[in-house]
Amino acid sequence: MDGYPGVIGGDSTKQQERHYYLLSELQTLVKDLPSSFQQRLSYNTLSDLALALIDGTVYEIVQGLLDIQHLTEKNLYNQRQKLHCEHQALKQDLARKHKDALQSCKSHNLALLKSNQQTELEALDIRVREEQRMMDKKIVAEMDQKVIDQQNTLEKAGVPGFYITTNPQELTMQMNLLELILKLQQKESQSGLL
User: Fold this and answer.
1) CB atoms within 10 A of CB 78
2) Matching InterPro entries, A to Z (predicted)?
């Protein structure tokens, strides 16, 4: 714990003071959460969270997870944009091909050509929708995996309230806990405690 402001070596008095300070700050921040979540955050849970935050390691872990999440989101967004651009190019190429074919078509073949072009256009639309659906499924799966990785990391770091779950209420609770951690980190950074 050396090197962290407010906690000097094994000085239990300093650690206790820091624990009380963090607990008090968490109790104040909890008041901004919806009352249904305030009720689920007992004194013991907040006290355990304050203990986990004493040396600043959890702040670093959360920031690292946030950075990884932002990079993942940006990468997935870029992949989807690339797919969208490829689809736009395919549609433009098909439209150009159809226009050229119409200009060189003999009038007695016009109805057949238009029918074939409509079939090609519908096939391309089906392909585009399917590829977009598959990309969206991939994005959701990757983000779900990222959540599981984050839960696992925070659980292993000893942060109370974190474990692997897909329960929407528990996920919301974990997001509220992360919000508390980030707000407290920001407050400490601004006041020079970090």
Assistant:
1) 10
2) Gonadal
Matching residue, tokens 């433009």: 92
Helices 57-103 and 110-156, axial angle in degrees (round to 10): 180
Is the CB of residue 60 less than 8 Å from the CB of residue 181? no
Task: Judge whether 21 and 35 are in contact, CB under 8 Å.
Answer: no
Tell me how far apart the alpha carbons of residues 165 and 145 are, in angstroms, rounded to a whole number.
Answer: 11
Torsion of CA 100, 103, 109, 114, to 10 degrees: 60
Q: What is the pLDDT along the chain (194 residues), one digit of tens a residue?
A: 334 444 445 578 899 999 999 999 999 999 998 888 888 888 999 999 999 999 999 999 999 999 999 999 999 999 999 999 999 999 999 999 999 998 898 888 888 999 999 999 999 999 999 999 999 999 999 999 999 999 999 999 999 999 999 999 999 999 999 999 999 999 988 887 66
